[in-house]
Structures are given as structure tokens and as C-alpha cells.
Design goal:
With 601 residues, this protein is of the alpha/beta class. Helices cover 42% and strands 23% of the residues.
């Protein structure tokens, strides 16, 4: 067996999140990571873990299998469910090998068994910190092992060589490599038997296996794929062919991050084939071995598409379809049902039970991919329409569709004028609040803030014209000026109250916002470069005044223009104030929105 040290080169310091109860073990891990040039953050409680995990992008998470009375597998699943941490490599650590299968099932990248091995533990951390691919190459020929090792090392891979099938199996179980290269004829355990063993093991069943052999007849090829091989290369090995094959495999791994696909089948071979093939197209693939497990994972992970076998233990594919359609979380999820049943009656039954597509085995994989891509595109279009319904009220859609409908010509310029109420919402002290925060943490915070604010704006029949940094521009009164002003005032109260209870996660201080509201004539229409980008938006002095009022508003209050106040004489306004607005030769009268103490507490 041989391997080479990792050459990292100058780069930004890596970051490691370490969650372990034992001070001794934590100190050893921290020492290893520090020697590798990483900055280590050690958390000692689950609460600390939850606080830190989304505050910055991590390069590696090392988690005890039992941490602060919580299973490390549960913490790993929490990481995998959140978009900001779904791709963080996770190493789960334990002295108990029985924890291994649960760790990998939860989505861990590696299970490290204690005690710490002073030689291999640093190499394992290097592998995940610096994204070094690990390859186990097994061949009984020393010459071929040396050739493969030298070639792969030149391309930057971490190579572990094995002289027979049993030694290879020990290496595969211990290191869970990214790819396995196997000769067929080997002592102690041949390549076919080893591949079957890999596919039967829950930890290694999805590892890509490439047969490298001189046995390349059609029968040999068929047998190789029947035992679970993913790829096949003839001897003598052409370095260019091997390099391109590995690049193709790893390119698929790097692409992952597209939609989640749940594959359910009781055959390990079919699961491995689909996981590998879908992964090569960039999909995040989750696997289940029966209908009951598939239902649990569908409800938990909310996949875009579910591919299920028909005949399975515990729950058949058609029973699964019926059950999925009963749950709000999965009632609209696309379902592809696979079966060897080939009659028209079977296909009709599958569609009647809730499947979107029915594909007969054996199937053409390209057809399956094309079907998945179409269903993903259809769900994306549906989500976009739902977002429009979420963020554009019925009043606003009427404004866009009936007041400025256009002719359908994309080059046509739409423009009109209308009196509307304008609202500007801005976060107090946003720059200071977010300084020294990781970009991902800031974006996540802003998106959560926007979600809360947008919900209130839509509730009060407002249009979100645009998000500007940490500010929101919203419009009210597409059909009724007075009602629009009333809706804007009611919305401002709710926004300030919601913001006061919003937990931004950076410290314990409450979030404060300022709001400016003004009513006046606006020009709305298509603005922008015709050949690059256009927005349907608003301009005018009424917008400028609303923005300047917002800048002058006290924290957790709204400043209302006299033009808006005049439309609501019954509103219990506070005493009027005089404000200096940029662009005005004299002070203007405006009003501070009356808020109860409990609304801004």
C-alpha cells in the first residue's frame, strides 16, 4: 500500500467546526487541523453548534457520534437539510463501530474510528479539507499497481494500492474511497466477488467501481455490470482514457447541488446504478430500500422527483404513490414508477394511483434522464408561478396585467402614470450588524428578513417592487388610493412589530427598522437596456420623498408624509413634525406613526 502527501499550496485558511465532548480528543483533533493550516472552532454544546453552524461557510465539520446527549447523525442530517451547509464535508467520530452505518445513512462523508491513528487521521482530514480524491487501486501485478499509482499521483489523487481482493476490501471499508479500480483475476478474492461485496455493504454500495482487465469480451462486460460495476477499461491501460474517465466521474460529483432525487428500490444494484447515473448529471440523490423508508425520506427531504420500483417489500410502489398524495409536503412531487410489468393496464393503473410517469424495465437510461429533466423543469416553472402568487398580490397582478398589458412584443415599451402609496423599509445599523460576518451568513439573514417582511406586505395587498440591499420598496393602492394608504399604514405597524421579534442570530439585540411612507403620482413602466435587462418598476418624486422620510424616521417607527395622512383623517396621528428633506427649499410637515410600547418591545 502506498500514498502520497497532499500538496496544498498557498490559499485561504480552511475552517473546521469541531463538536466533541472530550477535551482530550478535541485537543488532538484541533492540533491536527491547525498543523494543516486550518482555523478550528470548538463547540461544547448542541446550542453552540446550532448557533455557529450557519454563521459562516465551513470547510469541514468533525462531530462526535454522541455529542451533548445528541446523536451526531442527527446533527449531520441537520447540516444536510440546510442549503448553506448541505455540501460541508462531515466526519463523524466514535470508538464504537456499530455507529458507522447510521453515520453514513445520515449523510456523513466519513466515519472515523477511535483511537486516533497518528499516520492516517491527518491524511483523512487533508482529504476533506482540500478536496483530495481518494482512489483504491487493486491488482495482483506489482508493475500495474506501480503504473496506476504513479499516473494517478501525478494527477493529484490520493492513491491506496492493494495486491489482492481481501486487502482491497479492508482498504475500501476503512477509507471509503471516492472510486475503486479493480482487476478481475486476483488471489484470495476476485474482482467480481469484491464488487458484489462492495454493493452489499450499506456504507460502500454507492462507491463507483471501475473494472480494469484484459477480459473484455461481451460476456465479460455483461458480467461486470451485472455484479455492479459502473465503468470498464481494457488492459493495457491508456493513461489518457483513465484520466478522462475519472474526470467524468468527479465532474458529476462536483455538479451535485441540483434538485434532490429520491430513488426507492429493493435492489442494491439498481440503487447503485441510478445513484451513480443521476449523480453524473449533477442531481443530489437520496436512496431508500423499501416503500416505508422511501415515504419517511420523502417527507423529510422533500425531493423534486421520486423514482420508485413497483414491487417492493413493506409497501409497493402504487401504495407509496397513494400515501405520498395524501401529504401536503409531497402531494405535488413528481413520481416516476419503474416496473417490469409492460401491459397498458399496468401503466393506466400506475397513473391512476398517482404516478406522473411509468417506465418499463429494462429501460433506456437516457430516456429516464430526459424524463427526470422534464419533470424538474415543470416543477421549476410551477414554483416560479407560485412565487409570483406569493409576492404579487391580486391587486398588483391586475395592475401589471390590465393597466399595462402591452401587445406581447418583447421590444414594446410600456409606460403609464398613477397615484400610489410608496413604502420604503430599511434595517437600522445594517452595516455594523453584518461586519465581520461571512457572506453566506449575511445573505441567509437577509433572505429570512425578506421572507418575514414580504409576508406582511402581501397580507396588506402590497406590491414588492424591488429589494435594494437591505431595503424594500413596496407599493399600495393599485385600485383605491385611500385604501392603499390605509393598507400601507396597517402594514407598517405589523412590519415594525414583526421586526422587533425577529432573531437575526448575530447577537441578542432586537432588530430595528425604519419606514418611510408617501403618496403621490408615479410613472411606472419598463426601464432598462432592451438588449440586456428591463424591469417593470416605478420612478418619480413620490418615491424619492418616501426614501428620504425613511432615512429620517426614528428607529422602530414610520414617518408618514402629509400627502398620505390627508387621505386618512381618522387616523390617530401623533403630533406633526417638520423635517428637512433633500431637494426642498423649506421644511415639510410629516407625521410619526403612533406605536404602542408593546408593539416595538
Amino acid at each position: 500500500m502506498d500514498s502520497n502527501p497532499i500538496q496544498t499550496g498557498p490559499q485561504e485558511p480552511k475552517t473546521v467546526l469541531l463538536a466533541h465532548d472530550s477535551p482530550t480528543v478535541a485537543k488532538l483533533f484541533a492540533s491536527i487541523c491547525t498543523r494543516l493550516g486550518a482555523n478550528v472552532t470548538h463547540v461544547k454544546t448542541r446550542f453552540e453548534f446550532s448557533e455557529k453552524v450557519h454563521q459562516q461557510p465551513w470547510d469541514l465539520a468533525v462531530i462526535a457520534a454522541n455529542f451533548d446527549n445528541t446523536q451526531g447523525a442527527i446533527l449531520c442530517e441537520t447540516l444536510r437539510e440546510h442549503w448553506s451547509s448541505a455540501s460541508v464535508p462531515v466526519v463523524i467520530v466514535s470508538a464504537d463501530d456499530d455507529e458507522c452505518a447510521r453515520a453514513y445513512e445520515a449523510g456523513a462523508d466519513f466515519f472515523l474510528t477511535l483511537p486516533i491513528d497518528p499516520v492516517w487521521t491527518p491524511k483523512i482530514f487533508e482529504r476533506f479539507l482540500f478536496n483530495r480524491r481518494c482512489i483504491v487501486a487493486a491488482d495482483d501485478s506489482p508493475t500495474i499497481r506501480l503504473q496506476l499509482s504513479n499516473s494517478l499521483k501525478r494527477d493529484g489523487y490520493w492513491v491506496i494500492t492493494s495486491k489482492d481482493g481481501e486487502e482491497a476490501w479492508n482498504h475500501i471499508r476503512r477509507f471509503v474511497p471516492d472510486v475503486v479500480l479493480l482487476d478481475v483475476q486476483m488471489p484470495r478474492l476476485d474482482g467480481y466477488a469484491l464488487c458484489e461485496r462492495i454493493r452489499e455493504n450499506p456504507v460502500t454500495r454507492h462507491t463507483p467501481v471501475v473494472f480494469i482487465t484484459s477480459q473484455d469480451t461481451p460476456a465479460d462486460l455483461e458480467r461486470s455490470f451485472n455484479v455492479g460495476a459502473n465503468e470498464f477499461l481494457p488492459k493495457p491501460v491508456d493513461e489518457t482514457d483513465l484520466r478522462q474517465l475519472l474526470l467524468r466521474i468527479f465532474r458529476g460529483m462536483r455538479l451535485r447541488g441540483r434538485d434532490r432525487i429520491l430513488v426507492i428500490d429493493d435492489s442494491p444494484t439498481v440503487l447503485g446504478m441510478l445513484r451513480y447515473g443521476l449523480g453524473q448529471h449533477g442531481f443530489q440523490v437520496i436512496c431508500a430500500r423499501n416503500g416505508e423508508e422511501g415515504l419517511r425520506k420523502a417527507l423529510r427531504f422533500r425531493p423534486t422527483v421520486i423514482i420508485s420500483d413497483w414491487q417492493m417489500p413493506r409497501m409497493t410502489g402504487t401504495e407509496l404513490c397513494r400515501e405520498l398524495r395524501l401529504h401536503d409536503e409531497t402531494k405535488d412531487t413528481a413520481i416516476i414508477l419503474l416496473s417490469s410489468r409492460s401491459t397498458r393496464a399496468d401503466a393506466i393503473r400506475a397513473l391512476r394511483e398517482g404516478a406522473d410517469e411509468y417506465i418499463v424495465k429494462p429501460f433506456n437510461f437516457e430516456r429516464l434522464i430526459a424524463t427526470v429533466e422534464r419533470l424538474v423543469a415543470e416543477r421549476l416553472l410551477k414554483r416560479e408561478r407560485e412565487l409570483l402568487r406569493t409576492y404579487l398580490s391580486s391587486t398588483v397582478r391586475q395592475l401589471a396585467e390590465t393597466l399595462a398589458p402591452g401587445t406581447g412584443d418583447i421590444n414594446e415599451l410600456r409606460a403609464d402614470e398613477r397615484t400610489l402609496t410608496v413604502m420604503f423599509v430599511d434595517i437600522v445599523g445594517f452595516t455594523k450588524l453584518c461586519e465581520d460576518r461571512a457572506p453566506r451568513a449575511v445573505i441567509e439573514f437577509l433572505n429570512r428578513f425578506y421572507e418575514e417582511m414580504a409576508t406582511q406586505i402581501v397580507k396588506h395587498e402590497g406590491l414588492i417592487d424591488k429589494f435594494i440591499g437591505d431595503a424594500i420598496l413596496a407599493l399600495f393602492g393599485a385600485n383605491d388610493e385611500v385604501q392603499g394608504a390605509r393598507n400601507a399604514i396597517a402594514c407598517a405597524r405589523d412590519l415594525i412589530a414583526v421586526a422587533a421579534k425577529f432573531h437575526h442570530g448575530f447577537d441578542t439585540s432586537p432588530l430595528q427598522i425604519r419606514i418611510g411612507i408617501n403618496t403621490g403620482p408615479l410613472i411606472y413602466g419598463d426601464l432598462g437596456a432592451a438588449n440586456v435587462r428591463r424591469d417593470f418598476t416605478v420612478i418619480g418624486d413620490a418615491v424619492n420623498v418616501a426614501q428620504r422620510l425613511e432615512a429620517l424616521a426614528p428607529p422602530s417607527h414610520a414617518l408618514i408624509s402629509s400627502e398620505t395622512a390627508a387621505r386618512l383623517p381618522e387616523e390617530p396621528w401623533a403630533s406633526p413634525v417638520l423635517a428637512d428633506l433633500k431637494g426642498r427649499s423649506s421644511q415639510v410637515r410629516c407625521y410619526v406613526l403612533h406605536m404602542k410600547d408593546e408593539e416595538i418591545a
